[in-house]
Amino acid sequence: MEYVAVIGLEVHLHLKTKTKAFCGCSTEFGSQPNTQVCPVCLGFPGSLPVLNKKAFDYAIKTGLALNCKVQNFTKFDRKNYFYPDLPKNYQISQYDLPLATKGYLDIEVEGKIKRIGITRVHMEEDAGKLIHKENCSLVDFNRAGVPLLEIVSEPDINSPLEAYEYLSTLKSILEYLEVSDCDMEKGSLRCDANVSIRPKGETTLGTKTELKNMNSFKGVRDALDYEIKRQSEALNRNEKISQETRLWDAKTMVSVPMRTKEGAQDYRYFPEPDLPPFLVSDEQILGLKNEIPELPTEKMLRFIKEYGLSEYDAKVLTSDKKFAYITEERIKKYPSANKKPVVNWSIGPVLETAAASKMEPADLIIPGGDDEFIKLIKLAEDGQISNLVAKSVFNESLKANKLATQIIREKNLFQISDESSLEKLADEVIKGNPGPVQDFKSGKTNAIMFLVGQLMKKSGGKANPKVVQDVLRRRLTDV
Amino acid sequence: MDITKNTVKHVSHLARIDLCDKELDKLAVQLKSILDFIDKLKELDVKDVNAASHILPLNNVFREDTLSESLPLEETLKNAPQKNDKFFGVPKVIE
């Protein structure tokens, strides 16, 4: 039987503030355990939480960027449960009046745009970190109280690939907004998935399971692949799917049911009495909306229109905000109307070199800066140096920290396009290769490529291949 | 509102309070009388009153995103019943 997967994703995001959500402790990652704590985030009696304005603004901006309706009235609630990483025995969260609702995110899957609904965006605080030892567990509360944003999607996602695209698109937007580091390895972005399947053509939903513990976007895709297959096989055997939480293991590529405590969770939400409610005026919302920068999709469309880029090129260039910015600066500085060479160089050598040296593409230092980079591209484009030479000059320039134009001058790498000097070489090649010459003359025109190759070799790679072919052709028919 | 022994059992578990059988019986009666008393509020007509989410006429209380000093580690762990190096120690929990 053929099944359709129904997937909803829940993303938790650390907001990039200097201090925690409700106190002035640092949010820095990787510090000594329990050194970024105070009576508020440790839940000491009598302490009072006060909301971080920046975290609140970041949350609203994110809601707006995800096309949500930002609520004019929002409040916090207590979610009550006992766990050693939760010092107050409740988490400050939002229950019935989240700060933003009913948004959407457009993703592109196999060339088609699909709209994924966003149910809600709400603020809460993170819990501490547990480290499990042989006989006991250790608690570090540095993370307790770090501002979190929960972004819940509608179950509009129908395949692991769509889930992957949703996460990539979301991450790209969040990075453009500069509200989060989005680093899954450091736990600043976490994702849980709800998934069920139903026979194709039917509308009743199947029993869903919740997947946790995925630590990369690929992990989310793999875990979903596995779970959809597992559920399909179970249904084919007429087994029932039990509603459970399953933990993904990236090493074994298998998920196992989480051991659960007896009885359903009972969080007893109630309004947080320590925090007064928040009123957000339309003017404030508009003000924050105006602070939202051009987002990846808008930038991509503008690149296509303004610089005549292909959709693919525009997408690659705009996936990283900083890289998009520096590349656009270079495109603007490039003196010709056809901007394609700068794009090709940015997507080609620049991205390749950055990837090879494990650097952010925007951090790649080109000796002499944009001016040298553009000169090099222009020289190649004008045929003064060959493309191959240009690329090796680029690599050498970065490695030796030397100006590209200096290398070209010192090594005399300018392409030979001068016909009289090429004619001399052409005659030598024709003399030295009677076989291929005969082939060419008897109609095997492809044989000229061999002669071109020979001439290129003789010139030390500096001859202009286009001119070489013209000259050879002429000498072969003349002589 | 009907408070059974099982309700008390459930609530006491949520609050992590161990109660014996006798206590459960006793508290069921007491909790019921407390809730019945509170139920008196239902007699009021609150049709035109907005639900309150806070008792004080306050809103939009913020702080700026500026660092303040955290506690010294020694102070933080001072009252911990169990500690291990720089950590709070707790009985082992497994997910």
3D shape of chain A: elongated
- How would you describe the oligomerization state of the chains in this entry? heterodimer
- Average pLDDT confidence of chain A is 89
Question: pLDDT below 50 for ≥5 consecutive residues: which ranges of chain B?
Answer: none
Q: Mind summarizing the main beta sheet of chain B?
A: 2 strands, antiparallel
Question: What is the number of helical segments of chain B per DSSP (H or I, 4+ residues)?
Answer: 3
Q: What share of the residues of chain B does DSSP label as strand, in percent?
A: 5-15%
Query: How large a portion of the residues of chain A is in β-strands, by DSSP E?
Result: 15-25%
Strand order of the biggest β-sheet of chain B = 2-3
Largest sheet of chain A: 9 strands, mixed
Q: At CATH's second level, what is the architecture of the domain at 5-42 in chain B?
A: Orthogonal Bundle
Gyration radius of chain A, to the nearest Å? 30 Å
Q: Give the % helix of chain B.
A: 25-40%
Helix content of chain A: 40-55%
Q: Compute the separation of the termini of chain B in Å.
A: 36 Å
* CATH-assigned homologous superfamily of the domain at 5-42 in chain B: Glu-tRNAGln amidotransferase C subunit, N-terminal domain
**Total count of domains of chain A:** 3
